[in-house]
Amino acid sequence: MPVENQEERTVEVLGLPQAVDEELLYLYFENKRRSGGGPLSSVDKHGDRAVLVFEEPNDAARVLSKGHHVLHNAELTVRKPASKDNCRLLLRGVSPNTNMELIELYVENMMELDEEDYTLSRSPGQDLVLIHCRQPFSQGPNAHFTFHRCQMSE
C-alpha cells in the first residue's frame, strides 16, 4: 500500500490511561457509533500514546472530526501524526543559553555533516533547534540518528 495512503489512514492518540490496552483501543475505535471509526489494520501502543492505522481513510477522518473522545474516564487527544520529513530533525531539550556554535559542532559530529550540508533554526523559546539538511537522510544503516537528551551549556 502506498505511504501516502497509510498516512491518510493513520491517527495518533495521546493521554491514554495505563489501564487501556490494545484490545480496548481496537474495540473503541472500531465502534463507529462511539468513535466514528471503523476496522483497524493495526494498533501500536507505547505508554500513554498509540498509533492507529485504519483500513479506510474515511474512518480515520471521521475519528479526527469527532473531536471529543473519552476512554476510562480520560479525555483523549486524537490527531494526525507529525509528517515524516527525511530532510528535517528536531533537537529537543537544548538549554536556551547554549551558544549556536556549540550546537553546530554537536550536529556536525553526531550526523557527520559539513556546515554547508545543513541549516539550523531555533524556536522562539530557544529550547528547540530544527536541523534542515540539504539532502534527505540516506536509507542505509546510518539512517537513524539518536540524539540523547543532553545539557548543552556554554
UniProtKB/TrEMBL annotation:
GO molecular function: nucleic acid binding
InterPro entries according to UniProt: Nucleotide-bd_a/b_plait_sf (IPR012677), PAR10_RRM1_2 (IPR034464), RBD_domain_sf (IPR035979)
Domain of life assignment: Eukaryota
Alphabetical list of CDD domains matching this protein: RRM1_2_PAR10 (cd12547)
Protein name: RRM domain-containing protein
